[in-house]
Amino acid sequence: MNIELIKDIVDYGVIGLLGVMSFMTFWFWVERILFFRGVDVNSFETKEELEIELTNNINIISTFGSNAPYIGLLGTVFGIIITFYSMGQGSDLDAKTIMTSLALALKATAMGLIVAIPAIVFYNHLARKIEVVLAYWDIKEKRKLAN
Description:
The chain is mostly helical. The protein has helices spanning 3-38, 47-54, 58-89, 95-146. Helix 1 packs antiparallel against helix 3 (58-89).
């Protein structure tokens, strides 16, 4: 078994997946921001229709934000397993090599957090914008009833 190949697959696979998640999170956040700029509450017949349109794609941002740390942690666990396997297969136990391998394994957790933290910030930003637009809907309906 080629442990270097497995190490590269795990490393690039986890970091690559987190990179894709990061890009998609940013993309959906920008898409929602652009949508909110052009939304007109008067063009919706019901509040439910408005809410459906406002909440499109934010569940993806939330999902990425909540799962990115776990994907990073999974990459770290695989990295540690590979490090221990390599240590068990080799006859020399060089502290420098071990520490370097463990440090590199931890980068997956760091990357998971780097993806998750902005995703949660983006999600909360959008959730607040949704609350504001729905409040505008309620204000519009109250004015309509008052007249």
